[in-house]
Request: fold
Amino acid sequence: QVQLVESGGGLVQPGGSLRLSCAASGSPLKYYAIGWFRQAPGKEREGVSNISKSGGSTYYADSVKGRFTISRDNAKNTVFLQMNSLTPEDTAVYFCAAEFVFDTDFIPRFSTPYVYWGQGTQVTVSS
Reply:
């Protein structure tokens, strides 16, 4: 079983950047594909980006493609989400989630019922 803790959220002006971290404990992160999701007030949760357990495969939602970059450091049991050119539409609580996978480069769909979730970190983009 893996426990996830997100950090790095905060208040940023439009056009700014933030780097979110998802730190794992309890089980090596190298066994899990990781997804980043977000939920804005009054909206359903949506997938943002995910990464295979090797880090060799990544996927981005169209809304963040070209602005966000997902990466991981399995030695540090941490996954990152670098967010650039932020807009008010990016305001949400951001969650990371882990799914145990066998295939090194497999990326679960956003609709996959990820088993393990963090508590979320708030990102607010406002002037």
